[in-house]
Every structure is written in structure tokens, then in C-alpha cells.
Amino acid sequence: METYQILGLVGSLLLVLALAMMMLGMAVMPVGFGMMGPMMMPMGFFPVFLFIGLPSIVLGIVGSVISDRTAAGALLILAGILSLPVFFGFFGISFILLIIAGALALSKR
Fold first, then answer.
1. Are the CB atoms for 80 and 95 separated by under 8 Å?
2. Angle, alpha carbons 14-16-17 (nearest 5°)
3. What is the pTM of this model?
């Protein structure tokens, strides 16, 4: 495996961890469901993060697995941008890893 593939997989796995932490944290809060959720949204809107996070994870994994470097780079950069709403890209770590992986995939021919 090449460097961009490893970085993309690690970034995607961190997104899986962040998404699981967000969903479990919102579902089993010690004080119960409050009036306001994350980003001042009502609690019914937390599936928004799931619908944004899942394509980001899928794009990151697919971008890491395919052999076409141009398509892989584009998918990894798109996954990095989509990862921002998910726990701010797991404190920015998965965002940076996915963007660097996409740049590495696009820079080497």
C-alpha cells in the first residue's frame, strides 16, 4: 500500500470513531435529551451528521482502495471537506489526514 492509501484509511477510521462517539454521546446523554442539540439544533436533527458523515467515510475508503490516483485524490479531498461537520473532522485530525492523502495522490504520477 502506498502512503496516500494508508493516510486515507486512517482518516476514514478516525471518522468512524468520531461518528460513533457523536451518535452514542447524543443518544445516551446522562441528563437525557435536552432542548438543544449540537450546533444549536433541536435534538431531532442529529441524523444530519449521520447523512453527512457516512458519505465522507465511504468516499475516504473508496478513495484509498482504488488504483487510479487522480480519482483517488479527488475522492479523498472531497471526503476531507465533508468530514468537517463530523466532530470538526475529529478535532481536525481526520480532515488533515484526508486532505494530505488527496494531495499526495494527486501530486505523484
1. yes
2. 65
3. 0.80
Displacement of CA 64 from its chain's centroid (Å): 13
For the chain, the domains span 3-24+46-107
Supply 90's cell numbers. 475529529
Q: Is 37 buried (19+), middle (13-18) or exposed (0-12) by CB count in 10 A?
A: middle
| Count of residues in the chain | 109
Taking only the tens place, the pLDDT of each residue in 65-91 is 999 999 999 999 999 998 888 767 677
SS3 sequence, 73-107?
A: HHHHHHHHHHCCCCHHHHHCHHHHHHHHHHHHHHH
Residue from 8, 29, 14, 34 nearest 93 by CA:
14
d(CA 104, CA 109): 10
Instruction: Kindly state the cell numbers that stand for 54.
Output: 457516512
pLDDT digits over 14-64, tens only?
999 888 887 776 666 655 555 555 555 555 556 777 788 899 999 999 999
